[in-house]
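Supplementary notes for students who missed Thursday's class. We covered one full example, reproduced here. Read the sequence, then the structure, then the short commentary at the end.
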Amino acid sequence: MLPLTRARAATTAAWLIGAMLYIPSALAQPPAGDAAEPGAGRWRTWVLSSSSQFRLPPPPDAAATRDELGELQKLAMGRDPETRRRIAWWAAVAPSYRWNQVALEASLRAGLSANLASRRLALLHTALADGMVAAWDSKYVHARPRPAATDPTLSTVGATPSSPSYPDEHAVAGAIAATILSELFPQRAAEFARLAAESGRMRLLAGVAFPSDVAAGATLGAQVAAAALERGRKDRSDQPWTGSVPAGPGLWSGTNPVFPQAATWRPWLLETPDEFRPPPPAAHDSPERAAEMEFLRGFPRAPATSARALFWEAAVGGLRNHEYWNNHAGRLLLESGQAASAPRAARAYALLNVAFYDAGVACWDAKYTYWTIRPFQLDPRFQPVFATPNHPSYPAAHACYSTTSALVLAHLFPEDAAALMALARESGESRIWAGIHYPSDVAAGQQLAERVAARAIERAREDGAEAGPP
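Structure (token representation):
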């Protein structure tokens, strides 16, 4: 048997003290297994000033707890097969995993570009991450036992979580997600509210949370969501573009360029959008650019390279790039056994989506600083594999987005680093195979991505989640 560390001893003591507040001492006991992430309540936050900013008051007393147990006993008698199915669906993974699925579907249905979708995903997931940190702060301060630990006669559905009961993390996440998504997609507000209510109700029907846990979670989630939305209203994403397309030799030409205003949006990790701006690209009439055009003209297009280029454009592309990398995050959370950890899953999604968003802001800053001409514009006789996206060439957005995403996920899931980086390289190179980017566009995008990802990884190493036991 492993020795009882000071941290585990303190956690067990907190559980015992908390249990005695609600039940006879003979029944006081911690949950089965190790306490779930007892240090998560001290992790660094994104939009909150601290994990304790919205610390909840103590949960109800012993008499109120007994009344709540009576409510749970009655609810347990009404479980039907559909209820059990929905309980299992919500409980199978951490709440951030489920709300990521909801947010991705909403973004895809709305046809959002990677710029807009990544801004919304970053806002949602930083709030969810802070919500879990704040929930864990209150959980381990108050150390309320789960209902089945208080009344062993209560039947439950599924495993009882090994964290304190108050507040309920699913209710926290539901309130955050429904509030934020309803502002971002107002036409679907009722749908999001229904899902949030269901997520909390299933916890009661499962017998793993008290009604006051769910109510307190909803209160906490609403407070975190309000702080996140306040930050979102100041990120300059509502400012229209007031510039114009410049004219001149070697400059991109066209109308309605894709989101030039995204170059000015407020980043999360970078001090300013131009903090990592790459140096100017080669001039359109330089020997370097002539050599790149010659390379593109002579590239031996083959079915395999064209097919992979089409995959990265059509199946991933500007409307699904964010979905692609978020789906990888979900898969890796499942494979690593972290998908059921509310704090871990929320942290992973926040780091990925913040880095993805910042890479886009930095990439767009460079694109609309240099307005680099595309290959098909520089040589009208040159035909790419498919239509070129309607924004300047330098740097390559796929290289920015994919390399950043792969590097952040490789840090979080090092066993998969080689496969992730291979995908990132192919994503960048596919733009050369398609003839829509110069090799230097991709190289600049990869270098920019490395700097953005390094900033995210630096934060990950310092946020308290990777520290060893005390």
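Commentary. The CA atoms of residues 410 and 418 lie 8 Å apart. Confidence is low (pLDDT under 50) at residues 1-34. If anything here is unclear, bring it to office hours.
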